[in-house]
Each structure stands twice: as structure tokens, then as C-alpha cells.
Design a protein that fits this description.
Elements (H helix, E strand, L loop, with lengths): L1 E8 L14 E2 L5 E6 L2 E6 L6 E4 L6 E6 L5 E6 L3 E6 L7 E6 L5 E6 L5 E6 L6 E5 L16 E6 L6 E6 L4 E5 L4 E6 L6 E6 L5 E6 L4 E5 L5 E4 L11 E6 L5 E6 L3 E6 L4 E7 L10 E7 L2 E6 L4 E4 L9 E3 L6 E6 L5 E5 L4 E4 L6 E3 L9 E7 L2 E6 L3 E6 L4 E8 L4 E7 L2 E6 L3 E6 L2 E7 L6 E4 L5 E5 L5 E5 L5 E5 L6 E6 L5 E6 L4 E5 L4 E7 L6 E6 L5 E6 L4 E5 L6 E4 L7 E8 L2 E6 L4 E7 L2
Antiparallel strand pairs: 1-55, 2-3, 3-4, 4-5, 6-7, 7-8, 8-9, 10-11, 11-12, 13-14, 14-15, 15-16, 17-18, 18-19, 19-20, 21-22, 22-23, 23-24, 25-26, 26-27, 27-28, 29-30, 30-31, 31-32, 33-34, 34-35, 35-36, 37-38, 38-39, 39-40, 41-42, 42-43, 43-44, 45-46, 46-47, 47-48, 49-50, 50-51, 51-52, 53-54, ...
């Protein structure tokens, strides 16, 4: 029994209100980089569904940039570490790791020879450091700022120069090598968010929270013009700027919910992009990238907006995804994958898609606890104490909402009947979007499942017992007691023959529903609590996902055999679902989705 990973559906970039984010591309212009959590994602510019990941950081990553040679990537994190790793091959071999200061790295840049790096951020003893990438020895001093540095850029040719922008409202200009403070430029009156040299090195721009954009001479640091003096300039913080390859234009993203293209020679705006008819703070543009013919502006929501310089107005393509950990996953009747996350967002994914389709309408305002699907409807419950339905055909929530009266712990469906177990010892029966009836249990439920024929409701408890109730009159008809820890998840096989139960003691037990006895007790290869269990359509295999980041696939025909997908996710593997008998989709607290092909021998 073996597996192969077919795809990674990457999350959106991590964003933070009031801060810019860093996007960068490889020298050839085929791949772009960004960070989410501890992971650096590399996605194809043309086809963002092609994604790979780097998981070497032990804390949240903040920025990653390709060396101009294309052979290495340098990535920084919130603890001041810069890791330099190999892009050739799939091993991502670590070249060096350097802790440049104690604190968050906000930005870094390579020199044009791919030898030197300047990292800047929020260190306790200093805000910037210049060093050789292979030996980590110092190549100058990044001094002169009184507060955290947000951005750095190194002139891409000789004579070497560097420029930094800081929370102390100044832009500092350095001569190199070694890098040495030359002068402080005080044209801005608020936090400087971004500084960038043009590709030809002749000029650089600075952008700040005062809505101003200045242009300077690259060799001297002298001011040439204030671009933001133009009539249709930004009306809010300019978070990010990116140059066109020919050094004639600049793309800017702003807190005023627009992105603009500036003509440098004419010193005016030539295109403006809006991202919603009724924009909210989620449409603030906090990151930009211009590489070759690709222009990307990133919304605070994490959406990657592809722009066309010839067509203003709005993006030509939007790539969406989750930013926060995914908490539940289901397969819809349209064969799309539905995922719900920690922040209440629900997305639909095509199985080979470049991004997600966000479900519209009034959705959950808090964590999605569970998603289940039947026919053309996906059912969900969330920590906003609500049960909702969404239509698969138009990816929209239906208006009917059922208040659960307490935090839902689990959700199951069979033959159009939904069963919700809540934290206040209540099991609610919902039919056609309406609460039909409910019954109290003598214990707080921890998991629930309804048999495929709709006759039996299984309810898990903290004591490790599974109580079986008649669905018609709610009389208890049996108790299963083989689980040793709190029952965390339950699932009936599609043929109704088995009930799989996962618990906090890392065990998955398979019960025979005809005799209410243990059928499978060998499924014990996880090392932490089981988060979810799912059956294959033919009822021959069970998949389980766990807090230990692993996913296991178990066989009912050969109970001693299993497929172990180690480190399926960087964080907890929160969910798993069979797409067909030989393919599974998994979700993780790392906000990503993985697709695996299984080979059952």
C-alpha cells in the first residue's frame, strides 16, 4: 500500500492590518513567493495551482526572496532568523542560517551578485544587518534609524547603494560595500512602508502612510519628484510598490482600496484598479508584484489580484484561498471540495483549480466546526451557534439559519435529516432547514453520526463511550465502550456495516453495527488525538487525520495493513475526505489542502 501526492492547494498570503506584505518572483519570472504561517509557498505565476512549499522555519515566516542567480532563496521569520536554501532539485538543502537580531524580520534584499543580503525589521538591539550569505560575516552597518525598519532595497548594479524605510518617518541612504550610512531623507511625515530601486538602478521610490510617493536619484539619493502630487493620487497609506521590468512604470497598492500604475517620466497615474463595488477594509491593497507581464496586487483578505496594465478598472483574475487554519472538509455533490476555516470562511475548490471560489451570502461569523454534504447541498455548523445550508449550484448560503442554542460539537446527515450535537447536552434534528425536534443526553456530546438508513444516531462522550439512539423515538438502544479516551469523531460506512470511532488516545476503532461489537482494533498508529475519520465510497477503507500531522488509511479487508502519510500537513491534520476509492483530500491547520492518490495492494 502506497501513496503519491497529486497536488497542494496553497493558502493565501498571511496579512496583518496596517502592514505591508512581501511578494517576490524568481529571476526567470515563472514562480512567485510569499509566506503563510511557518511555510514559504512557491506558486507558478501562470498557473497558481502548481504550488510547492518550504517548511524549514520553526516559527512564522515573514518574507522570502530569490537570489538574482536563481539558485537560492533567503527567507526570514518573526524571531530574526534568515534561512538560505537551495532551489535546485526538490531537497531544498539549507545553505546557512543566520540570526541577524532578536525580533521580527520585515524585509530582506540580495545584492545583484547574489553574495550579500541586508535584512531589516524590529530587532531589540538593532534594526538591520548586512552580511555575506555563505559565511554570514558582516559587510557593513545598517544604522541611523530610531525605530523598526519596514523595507529595504539594494541597487541592482554598481556603484552599490542601499535604501531603507522606517517607522521613524525617514528613508536612509547607504553607500557600499561595506554598507555605510550616507544620509537620512525626511520627506515623509508618517511611517515609511516601502522603498524600491528600479531594475536599471537609476532611481528609487519611497511610499508611506502619509499617502505620498517620492522618486529619487539612485546614485545620489537626491529627490527628483513627488509622484503623489498627481491629481488622482492615493488617498490612503501606500503599503507597497513594485517596478516594471523596463523601469518606466510603478505599481502601487494602498489602504484606499485601490492599486495604481504610475508613469515615471510623465509623473502621473495611467491606470487605477478597484476591487469591489462596495469596498471594505478587506479590500485594502497591502502587497504588489510586477514580474514580466504579470502584475499582482494582494488584498488584506489574502486575495491575489491579477491586473492587466492595458485594462484598468478591475482585476482580470482573482486567486482566492484560506488564510487561517482549515477546520473542516467535505466533498460536495458537484465533486468540488468544500472547506471551512477558523475565521468562518467557506471555500469551494475544483480538484485541479488555481484557487478557491468563496461561498457568498450570510455565512458563519466564527469558526466552522463541521461540514457535511448530501446531494446538492452542503451543511455547516459553526461556533456562532448556527446551522446553515449552502447551495452547491450557485455557491451561496441559503437564508434559513437554525440557532443551535449552544456551541455545536459535531454534525452528520443521512436521507435529508441533519443531526447536530451541542455542548449543552442536546442533540438537534433538522429537516429541510427547519429544527424538527431535539432530545437531551445525560452527558455532553463530543461526536455524532447518523446511520446511512437514518435509523440510528451514534453519540460520542468524554468517557469514551458511544451511545446509540433510535432516530424515531430517541430511546437508547446500546452503548459501545471500547474507546479508551474521549470520542472525537464518528463515521458510518456507506453500506452501514461499520461505525468508525476516533478518540483522544490516538486510536481508531471499527465497530460491527449488526452485533455492536469491535471488528477492528489494530488501527493504532497515530501518536495524538484523532481529528476526523472518513470512509471510502466502497466501504473498504477508512482514512483518519490527527493532531500528529499524519493521515492514515486503513483497510477492512486487511486490517493489519495501512498507508501512513507522515507530515501530511505542517500543523495538525484537521480533516480528510475520500474523493473516490483511490483518492483523498486532506486539510490542515496550516490552511492548505493536499490531494493524495492511494495504491491499495
Amino acid at each position: 500500500m502506497s501513496f503519491t501526492k497529486k497536488a497542494t492547494f496553497a493558502p493565501s498570503p498571511s496579512t496583518e492590518r496596517g502592514r505591508s506584505i512581501q511578494l517576490s518572483a524568481d529571476p526567470k519570472g515563472t514562480t512567485f513567493l510569499y509566506a503563510n504561517g511557518r511555510t514559504v509557498y512557491m506558486r507558478n505565476l501562470e498557473n497558481p495551482s502548481i504550488a510547492t512549499e518550504y517548511t524549514g522555519h520553526s516559527c512564522n515566516a515573514t518574507v522570502a526572496r530569490y537570489a538574482p542567480s536563481g539558485y537560492y532563496i533567503a527567507s526570514g521569520d518573526v524571531q530574526g532568523n534568515i534561512r538560505i536554501w537551495d532551489t535546485v532539485g526538490t531537497e531544498q538543502i539549507l545553505k546557512t542560517e543566520t540570526k541577524i537580531f532578536s525580533g521580527k524580520i520585515n524585509d530582506l534584499d540580495w545584492d545583484f551578485e547574489s553574495k550579500r543580503i541586508i535584512g531589516v525589521g524590529e530587532g531589540k538591539d538593532k534594526f538591520g544587518h548586512a552580511f555575506l550569505f555563505d559565511s554570514a560575516s558582516s559587510v557593513g552597518e545598517i544604522s541611523g534609524h530610531a525605530k523598526a525598519i519596514n523595507s529595504v532595497s539594494i541597487k541592482p548594479n554598481r556603484p552599490l547603494r542601499a535604501v531603507t524605510g522606517s517607522d521613524d518617518f525617514t528613508v536612509n541612504y547607504y553607500h557600499g560595500v561595506p554598507f555605510k550610512f550616507n544620509k537620512s531623507i525626511k520627506d515623509h511625515s508618517r511611517f515609511v512602508q516601502c522603498v524600491r530601486f528600479s531594475p536599471n538602478g537609476e532611481q528609487f521610490v519611497s511610499a508611506a502612510s502619509d499617502s505620498k510617493l517620492f522618486l529619487y536619484d539612485g546614485k545620489t539619493g537626491d529627490k527628483i519628484a513627488e509622484l503623489s502630487a498627481a491629481a488622482d493620487a492615493h488617498k490612503g497609506t501606500i503599503f507597497s510598490v513594485s517596478w516594471s521590468g523596463d523601469s518606466t512604470q510603478v505599481l502601487s497598492g494602498s489602504g484606499d482600496m485601490t492599486a495604481k500604475i504610475w508613469d515615471i517620466a510623465a509623473q502621473k497615474v495611467v491606470q487605477t484598479y478597484n476591487f469591489a463595488e462596495k469596498p471594505t477594509h478587506e479590500h485594502q491593497q497591502v502587497g504588489t508584484l510586477w514580474k514580466g507581464s504579470y502584475l499582482i496586487s494582494t488584498s488584506l483578505s489574502g486575495n491575489l489580484n491579477y491586473l492587466d496594465p492595458r485594462v484598468g478598472g478591475k482585476p482580470v483574475r482573482i486567486v482566492k484561498g484560506h488564510q487561517r487554519g482549515i477546520t473542516s472538509i467535505a466533498l460536495g455533490g458537484d465533486k468540488k471540495i468544500y472547506t471551512g476555516s477558523y475565521d468562518g470562511k467557506v471555500c469551494a475548490w475544483d480538484q485541479g483549480s488555481a484557487g478557491a471560489e468563496e461561498v457568498s451570502g450570510a455565512g458563519h461569523t466564527n469558526q466552522v466546526v463541521s461540514l457535511v454534504s448530501e446531494d446538492q447541498t452542503v451543511y455547516s455548523c459553526g461556533m456562532d451557534d448556527a446551522f446553515r445550508q449552502l447551495s452547491v449550484s450557485d455557491k451561496t448560503y441559503k437564508p434559513e439559519v437554525v440557532a443551535t442554542g449552544g456551541v455545536p460539537k459535531a454534525l452528520s446527515i443521512a436521507k435529508g435529516v441533519s443531526v447536530v450535537a451541542t455542548i449543552n447536552s442536546e442533540v438537534i434534528i433538522i429537516t429541510n432547514g427547519q429544527k424538527e425536534k431535539s432530545f437531551k443526553t445525560s452527558f455532553p456530546p463530543t461526536a455524532v453520526a447518523i446511520s446511512p438508513n437514518g435509523s440510528t444516531i451514534a453519540v460520542g462522550s468524554e468517557e469514551g463511550k458511544i451511545h446509540l439512539f433510535n432516530a424515531s423515538d430517541f430511546k437508547e438502544v446500546g452503548v459501545l465502550e471500547e474507546n479508551r479516551g474521549q470520542v472525537t469523531c464518528l463515521a458510518y460506512s456507506p453500506n452501514g456495516q461499520y461505525l468508525a470511532a476516533g478518540d483522544t488516545q490516538r486510536k481508531v476503532i471499527g465497530y460491527d453495527t449488526a452485533t455492536n461489537t469491535v471488528k477492528f482494533d489494530q488501527w493504532v498508529f497515530h501518536s495524538a488525538r484523532i481529528n476526523s475519520v472518513s470512509w471510502s465510497p466502497d466501504s473498504l477503507h477508512v482514512a483518519s487525520s490527527s493532531l500528529d500531522t499524519n493521515v492514515e488509511v486503513w483497510s477492512t479487508e486487511k486490517p493489519g495493513k495501512h498507508i501512513a502519510i507522515k507530515n501530511a500537513h505542517l500543523e495538525s491534520a484537521t480533516g480528510v475526505v475520500f474523493l473516490d476509492n483511490n483518492t483523498i483530500a486532506t486539510s490542515g491547520a496550516d490552511a492548505s489542502i493536499k490531494i493524495y492518490s492511494l495504491v491499495h495492494h
